[in-house]
Each structure stands twice: as C-alpha cells, then as structure tokens.
C-alpha cells in the first residue's frame, strides 16, 4: 500500500448551509371527491454563490392523484417556482463562500401535508423543503497516505502546463468605418495526451460589431481553427502524462487588440490565447485522517465487483462469403445498487463487416441487451453496498471470437464481457495535510 503523501485535486469544504422553507398553496379541483396521494419532488435547481450566501432557485414539482366523481383515479401535475437565500457558515471565518465556488446539493422535500374540502373541492397544500448545501472549492492538496485509512477514489494530480498562443488574422469588411466591439469565445476544445505532452485543438469564435457607412451597427462572426503543443510538467518525473489520463483545458483568451483601416475596410486582429492544461488520473488511495485537518468532499470506496458474461449468438448472412471484421462495444449501461449487489443492464453493440457475393464489403449492425447481477466485495464487512450509494461502471468487451460457414451463411459469435463495478459513497472526510 502507498505511503507518504500525494497531490490530489479535491473538493475542499468551504462551508455549509441549511434552511427550511415552507411553500403553501390553495387550489380548487372541482371534480375531486378524495385525494389519494401527493408526490412532491425538486427539479431544475440552480445555485448562485455570493459572499457568504447561496441563492437557490428551483421548481417544486407535484403529482396529485385524486378520485373524481366518476369513481376513477385521476392525476394532475403542478409546478411552483421558488427562490431562497441560504447563509453559508464557513469552516474558516477568513475563507467564506465566494462567487466561482462549487455547490453540492443535498436538498430534499422534508414533509407534505394537505387538507381537502370535498364540498368545495378546495385543496390546501403545505410543503416543507429542507435546503441542505455544501460549498466547496476545487483545490490541489497534498494529502498524507495511510495504508490502514479509508480508501477514496479521487483525481491525483499528474502535472500541468501552459503556453501562450498568438494568432494574427486579417479580414475584409467592406463599408466598415468603426469597430465597436469584438467578443471572443473558445469552442470545441479537444486535448490529446502524448508522452509528456498535450496537443490542444480548438476554435476561436469571434463576434465582430461594427458601424458601417449607413451609420447602423452591424454584426458578423468568424471562426478560426487553432492548435498548440503544450509540455506537461510532471509532479513526479517518474509518472509523466500519457494517453488514458484525464486532461482538462482551463485556458482563456488573454488579450485582444485590433486595428481597422476605414479606407480599405481591412481589420487586423491580434489574439493571445493562454493555453493551460491540467492532467489528472483517477486513483484509489488510502488517506490519513486528522480531526484538525482539512475537510474535503470525496468518494469513499465501499467495494468492488467483477464478473464475466458470455454472449453467444448465431445469425444468418445469406449473401456473405467472408467476414472482414467485427467490432464490439458496450453501450447504454445503467446500474442499480442493491443490498450487497449491483444490477447492471446494458447493450452489446456490434458492427459486422463482410464481403458479399457481389465482391463488395457490406455492413450490418446488431444490438443485444444484457443484464447481470454482480456481487460487491466490501472493503469493510460492516459497511456493505446498499441502495442509494453511487456506482461507477468500468465494463468492457474482453474478447470476441467468431466462426463463419460460407455454405450456410451462418455466423456464430462468442463475446466475453468483463463487468467491473465500483460502489462509492459521497462523504465528507477530514484529511491530514502535511
């Protein structure tokens, strides 16, 4: 097991806030004789972090089931917008909640009571919402490791790099006499990791506003493709950035200057992009706890599950004389955590390429639904997997073999799927900081 310390990208807890809010409403349901049930839920929650506070905006959605005068059960839906201001109590008074920080929401509908007057059809509803918020800030933190400590799944900092990209571009705008504004955005940025380097590709999108000879403000847009090679400075020289790790682009347009020649309508633009890439790798590590340490929100590893599943199919390909290739993927995976187990459902998607009797290469696709129950081996026997916990799927196609009979056109395929599941639970831990 690892010892020492490790630089992790964590969600450091800045503060917590809790507030109960009462939403009361009266409405009339003319045909109702009895209310069977009211099912409330919270939807479309949005959070705006201010200094020491969080503004919460959302929708209280209700499903009202009632018996009508026809003796049948009916249903109607109702949405109520709400806004609330929640004070955040900081862990460190000198580091309060501030704009740009993250919000982790644990809000629930705490209670719903109603009164129904059958004579008037009037329904009075009182719903209590418990707004439970944790404000965090993404931070690189050195954390002490302990082979006997709790195991967490967290991004470990591998390295980062930055470089300035200069772009000079000319565009002709006939009739332009003045540029009022140029608004820039970086779009469709992709990062490809190589050994110790990152290839960054993207689009510089610009909105150009100008006054023309008719004295009206006009608008044009343009997009410029760009790319840059960035060296990644590793935290540990023995662990350089490599394909398969997670690369996050955090760059932005650092500067923009422009010059318009009204005589020719030529606009010269000079843009500097700060290309910054942070590389992490999600690892499973045991951490040391310290009651006086730093609180973080993280994923505590509960257990793992691993199982193989053989899927064998035979399909007719009457016009095929040869199989060129079969590519198999796992798609649309969903999982449900139960007591000590995880039910995994998904789809095996196959692309089959074959040579037909006409001498051309043809293609068909095939989808096979599958489900499997995976036993979860807990790290701590006293804390087994249970409903409500999180799951992370790492399933893949382990092997594929096929046999084709040109005489009958029958294709038999045997695919082995490796179903790997990790169960975690979001928890707040106070970790030791060296």
Output the keywords:
single chain; 434 residues; mainly beta; 3 domains; 15-stranded antiparallel sheet; three-stranded antiparallel sheet
How are the secondary structure elements laid out?
Layout: E1 5-28, E2 32-50, E3 53-68, E4 73-87, E5 89-90, E6 102-105, E7 108-117, E8 122-144, E9 151-172, E10 176-194, E11 197-212, E12 217-231, E13 233-234, E14 246-249, E15 252-261, E16 266-286, E17 289-316, E18 320-338, E19 341-356, E20 361-375, E21 377-378, E22 390-393, E23 396-405, E24 410-431
Antiparallel strand pairs: 1-5, 1-8, 1-17, 2-3, 3-4, 6-8, 7-8, 9-13, 9-16, 9-17, 10-11, 11-12, 14-16, 15-16, 17-21, 17-24, 18-19, 19-20, 22-24, 23-24
Structure, explained:
Helices cover 0% and strands 78% of the residues. By secondary structure, the protein is mostly beta strands. It has three domains: 5-138, no CATH class; 155-282, no CATH class; 298-430, no CATH class. The strands form four sheets. It has a 15-stranded antiparallel sheet that branches. It has a three-stranded antiparallel sheet with strand order 2-3-4, with no helix packed on it. It has a three-stranded antiparallel sheet with strand order 10-11-12, with no helix packed on it. Strand 15 and strand 16 (266-286) form a beta hairpin. The two termini are 19 Å apart. The mean pLDDT is 94.
């Amino acid at each position: 097991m690892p010892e020492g310390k490790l630089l992790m990208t964590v969600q450091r807890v800045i503060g917590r806030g809790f507030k109960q809010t009462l939403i009361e409403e009266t409405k009339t349901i003319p045909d109702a004789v009895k209310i069977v049930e009211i099912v409330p839920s919270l939807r479309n929650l949005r959070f705006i972090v201010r200094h020491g506070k969080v503004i919460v905006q959302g929708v209280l959605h209700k499903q009202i089931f009632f018996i009508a005068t026809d003796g049948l059960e009916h249903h109607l839906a109702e949405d109520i917008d709400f806004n609330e201001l929640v004070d955040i109590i900081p862990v460190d008074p000198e580091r309060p909640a501030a704009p740009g920080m993250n919000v982790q929401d644990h809000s629930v509908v705490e209670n719903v009571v109603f009164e129904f007057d059958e004579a008037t059809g009037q329904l009075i509803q009182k719903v209590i919402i418990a707004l439970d918020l944790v404000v965090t800030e993404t931070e690189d933190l050195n954390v002490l490791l302990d082979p006997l400590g709790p195991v967490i799944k967290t991004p470990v900092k591998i390295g980062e790099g930055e470089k300035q990209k200069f772009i000079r571009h000319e565009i002709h705008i006939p009739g332009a006499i003045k540029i009022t504004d140029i608004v820039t955005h970086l779009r469709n940025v992709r990062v490809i990791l190589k050994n110790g380097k990152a290839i960054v590709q993207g689009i510089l999108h610009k909105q150009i506003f100008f006054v023309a000879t008719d004295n009206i403000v006009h608008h044009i847009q343009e997009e410029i493709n760009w790319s840059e090679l960035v060296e990644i400075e590793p935290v540990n020289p023995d662990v350089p950035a490599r394909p398969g790790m997670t690369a996050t682009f955090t760059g932005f347009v650092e500067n923009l200057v422009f010059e318009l020649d009204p005589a020719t309508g030529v606009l010269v633009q000079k843009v500097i992009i700060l290309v910054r890439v942070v590389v992490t790798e999600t690892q499973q590590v045991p951490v040391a706890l310290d009651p006086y340490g730093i609180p973080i929100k993280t994923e505590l590893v509960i257990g793992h599950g691993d199982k193989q599943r053989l899927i064998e199919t035979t399909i007719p390909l009457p016009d095929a004389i040869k199989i060129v290739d079969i590519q198999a993927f796992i798609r649309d995976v969903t999982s449900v955590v139960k007591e000590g187990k995880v039910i995994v459902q998904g789809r095996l998607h196959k692309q089959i390429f074959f040579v037909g009797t006409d001498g051309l290469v043809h293609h068909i696709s095939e989808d096979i639904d599958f489900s499997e129950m995976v036993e979860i081996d807990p790290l701590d026997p006293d804390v087994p997997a249970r409903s409500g916990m999180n799951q992370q799927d790492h399933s893949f196609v382990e092997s594929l073999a096929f046999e084709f009979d040109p005489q009958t056109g029958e294709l038999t395929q045997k695919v082995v799927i490796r179903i790997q599941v990790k169960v975690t639970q979001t928890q707040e831990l106070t970790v030791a900081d060296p």
